[in-house]
Design goal:
Blueprint (H helix, E strand, L loop, with lengths): L4 H4 L10 H19 L10 H19 L3 H12 L17 H19 L3 H16 L1 H10 L2 H20 L13 H25 L1 H15 L1 H14 L4 H26 L4 H26 L16 H25 L4 H8 L4 H13 L5 H27 L1 H27 L1
Helix pairs in contact: 2-3, 2-5, 2-6, 3-4, 3-5, 4-5, 5-6, 8-9, 9-10, 9-11, 9-14, 10-12, 11-12, 11-17, 12-13, 12-16, 12-18, 13-18, 14-15, 15-17, 16-17, 17-18
Length: 429
């Protein structure tokens, strides 16, 4: 529930009950105005923006009181008219600053003030921060835009089409034997694989390899460790200079998997959280320790070839992997039909190849409904993680090559030893 400053100050029913809204409006206007003042514009700066925002708030309040919607429209036209006023001489960087930017910023400030006057204060403040960020980061955004080649923009358009045009059109229901083929779910995997590769390409371009790799590993672990492993194994195979980057991203993503499963347990089956922690924490701890030791040893090695970024054009590989995913889904449904609930471990063994979350969420829901004891839950999740790790190692070896696979193998082994050791310890309790 949002914090009500008016109630805290006991302003309700007093002449000052609108004071919090007016102060919020001034604050948003000042935030944008400070950034514009740095441009030394004669059109609008640190005084004009707060006044324009305050005008929007006052007119919105009058509109609510008088019921005359024309007041807000008249105010908007008046602010737009400021764009026709003459502007003083500019110098330095300001000579390249389009005047339309300040005019649009004034219109946004007025609109944000109106939103505050109509009661949408939290959203208006958030949009004010975003607006100021866009204005302030012009050099960085312009520099990044100029570095994008034509095929980069085509990749962005391709990803947008895959995500926002094709994906919503696909039916989210099962077809075929056992209703195992779900077009929406299969295409979502295509979107994830393409999206992970594209996000990694953009992040390394913007942040550099040292900053980008930990961020990519963390985000990849939250989204899909399988897709992340596939994308960066392919990158390592096509670009020898990306071996170190690919190794760090893949290993960090697979360590984040343990954290993700722990968070899912806390959210869905909190009573199983401690038991899950006993198997997730040792696996993640030993894996991170191995990554740390390997990275320290790697510092003494000869320098790797320089990283050369290439835009990841991996739609064909994503489609092929999605087809494999659909086949595994069918096999999982077939085994479940053969063995029923008693074959839960067999289902975990097969379904864990392509998706740890699906079987994990299933057993967590069964546990929360008291239909499954804790220890079978832990065993099922451990089998799924183990199977998924073996499958990902096979992907890395077959696509990324022997060198990348050997870089990843010690961390995978130690993480699985830690997880299985935790499972053994949990069975003793």
């Amino acid at each position: 529930m949002p914090w009500d400053l008016s109630a805290w100050l006991q302003l309700a029913g007093t002449p000052y009950q609108s004071l919090p809204a007016l102060l919020s409006s001034l604050g948003v206007g000042l935030l944008i105005g400070v950034e514009r003042e740095r441009k030394h514009h004669a059109l609008a700066g640190i005084r004009t923006f707060p006044l324009v925002c305050l005008l929007g708030t006052l007119l919105a309040m009058l509109t609510s009181t008088l019921g005359s919607a024309w007041l807000l429209a008249a105010g908007l036209l008046a602010i737009a008219g400021l764009g026709f006023l003459p502007v003083g001489a500019r110098s330095g960087d300001d000579a390249n600053e389009p005047r339309t930017t300040t005019v649009i910023a004034l219109l946004i400030a007025y609109t944000l003030g109106a939103m505050i006057g109509l009661g949408n204060t939290e959203l208006a403040v958030a949009l004010g921060v975003i607006t100021t960020g866009l204005l302030y980061l012009k050099p960085e955004l312009s520099s990044f835009t100029h570095r994008l080649a034509r095929h980069d923009l085509l990749s962005l358009l391709q990803f947008a089409a895959l995500t926002f045009i094709i994906l919503p059109l696909l039916p989210n229901q099962g077809f075929g034997p056992y209703a195992a083929f779900n077009p929406h779910r299969v295409w979502l995997l295509v979107v994830l694989i393409v999206g992970v590769g594209l996000a990694g390409y953009m992040a390394v371009r913007m942040l550099g390899e040292k900053v980008g790799a930990p961020l990519l590993g963390f985000m990849g672990g939250l989204v899909s460790t399988t897709a992340t492993s596939l994308v960066y194994a392919r990158e390592a195979a096509s670009n020898p200079g990306s071996q170190q980057l690919a190794t760090r991203v893949i290993l960090l993503a697979n360590m984040v998997l343990f954290l993700r499963l722990q968070l899912l347990t806390v959210a869905i089956a909190p009573r199983a959280a401690f038991g899950m922690l006993l198997i997730m924490l040792p696996g993640m701890a030993l894996g991170l320790l191995t990554i740390f030791i390997s990275s320290r040893r790697g510092q003494a090695r000869d320098g790797a070839p320089e990283l050369e970024l290439k835009n990841p054009a991996q739609l064909s590989i994503a489609l092929g992997f999605a087809a494999l995913f659909a086949v595994v889904m069918l096999c999982s449904a077939w085994l479940k039909d053969l063995f029923g609930d008693s074959g839960l471990y067999m289902v975990a063994l097969v379904s864990g190849i392509n998706d740890v979350d699906a079987i994990s969420l299933t057993v967590m829901e069964l546990f929360s409904k008291q239909l499954l004891p804790l220890h079978p839950l832990l065993i099922t999740v451990a089998i799924a993680v183990l199977t998924n790790t073996v499958f990902k190692f096979g992907l890395i070896f077959s696509i990324g090559g022997r060198t990348l696979a050997l870089r990843c193998l010690p961390t995978f082994i130690m993480a699985m030893i830690g997880m299985l050791g935790g499972l053994w310890f949990a069975a003793l309790l």
